Amino acid sequence: MRRANGDWFALEADGKLRVPVFHSTQDAFMARLRTVEMLLFSPIALDAPLLNEIVDGRSEVDFCMVNDPFISLKRGSPLPHTQLASLMSNAAPRRRKWLNKA
Fold first, then answer.
1. How does DSSP assign 15-80, residue by residue?
2. Going residue by residue through the chain (102 aa), what tens digit of pLDDT does each one get?
3. Fewest C-beta atoms under 10 Å: which of 5, 25, 38, 65?
4. Distance in angstroms (rounded) separating the CA atoms of residues 74 and 78
5. In 3D, which of 9, 1, 3, 16 has the Cα closest to residue 78?
6. How many domains does the chain have?
7. 18 lies in a domain?
8. Whole-angstrom Cα distance, residue 75 to residue 68?
9. Are the C-beta atoms of 79 and 64 separated by less than 8 Å?
C-alpha cells in the first residue's frame, strides 16, 4: 500500500515497522475498507525494485502476509525479506486481459 507522495503503509510492532503484504489487489482493497489508516493508500503490485526501495538497508522493516483481509492486520504471518523475494521470483507473470488472444 502506497500513498501518492510515495510513503509506504506500515504498522508499528515491537519498535519495528511492519509492512503488510496481500495475496491480491482485491484483498488489499478489502483490508483498506476496514482500516481507517489505510484509506489514503492504494494497493500496488510489489516487484523487486519496490521491495528494495522499502527495505533500503534498514533492519527495522519487517513484512507480514495477510491471509485474510477481514481480520486485524496485526495478525498477519511474519514474512522474512528473503522469503518474500523468493515468492516474488517464483510467481508466474500475469498476462494482461487485452494481450490474451484465447
1. TEEEEEEESSHHHHHHHHHH-GGGTT-B-----HHHHHHHHTT-TTEEEEEES-TTS-GGGPEEE-
2. 888 888 889 888 888 888 999 989 999 999 999 888 899 999 988 888 888 888 876 677 888 999 999 988 888 888 887 888 887 777 655 554 545 444
3. 5
4. 10
5. 16
6. 1
7. yes
8. 9
9. yes
Q: Which three cell numbers stand for residue 20?
A: 503488510
Residue 102 to residue 26: CA distance in whole angstroms: 24
pLDDT recorded at residue 50: 83
Q: Can you tell me the distance from the alpha carbon of 60 to that of 40, in angstroms, rounded to the nearest whole number?
A: 23
Structural domain contains residue 20: yes
At residue 93, the pLDDT reads 56
